[in-house]
Input
Amino acid sequence: MKLYSNSVIDRLIDKYVKCGGECYQLNEGNLTSGDWILFDVTKKKYNFVIKEVYQNEWSSLQSIRKYRILPRKYQAILNENY
Output
């Protein structure tokens, strides 16, 4: 699993929203920007799930999963909250 820094994640979220995508924050992060779902209502773009990964007491990084179709688990979360 490849891990990314907070600045990379912030640029990804910014770029995704500027290109017409939507974002939803699942949890606020402790040391990073937290857990996110980046999704496209037009279903033309990839969807991303970003999660905070604990390293130690002083640092965390984030993982990214890319999906063509968002899994039901995340679709249910969006349907409840968005």
